Amino acid sequence: MQDVIRRSFAASIGAKERFDEEHGETLAHVARLVAEALAQGHKILLFGNGGSASTASHFAAGLS
């Protein structure tokens, strides 16, 4: 069982590392845009359906 858990963790880590390599600069750029928009008094609208709604709500709470 521990082997299964380790493989699952390794796969998750690998996916995050690949995402960072492929999209890290874009993600950092978007984060800067969001921070600048909030600093200028603009709204950031977030939405989702089901589990994505929970993620959007959690992200919104983190921004406030």
Would you mind describing this structure in some detail?
The chain has two helices and no strands. With 64 residues, it is mostly helical. The termini are far apart. The mean pLDDT is 96.
Helix % is over 70%
Contiguous low-pLDDT stretches (5 residues minimum) are: none
Topology as a string of helices (H) and strands (E): HH
Count of helical regions: 2
> What is the CA-atom radius of gyration, in angstroms?
16 Å
DSSP strand content: under 5%
Structural class: mainly alpha
Per DSSP E runs of 2 or more residues, the count of β-strands stands at 0
Overall pLDDT, averaged? 96
User: Could you describe the largest sheet, including whether it forms a barrel?
Assistant: none
Core attributes:
64 residues, mainly alpha, flat
Furnish the topology, listing elements before pairings.
Elements: H1 2-39, H2 51-63
Q: What would you say about this model in short?
A:
This protein has 2 helices and no strands. The chain has helices spanning 2-39, 51-63.
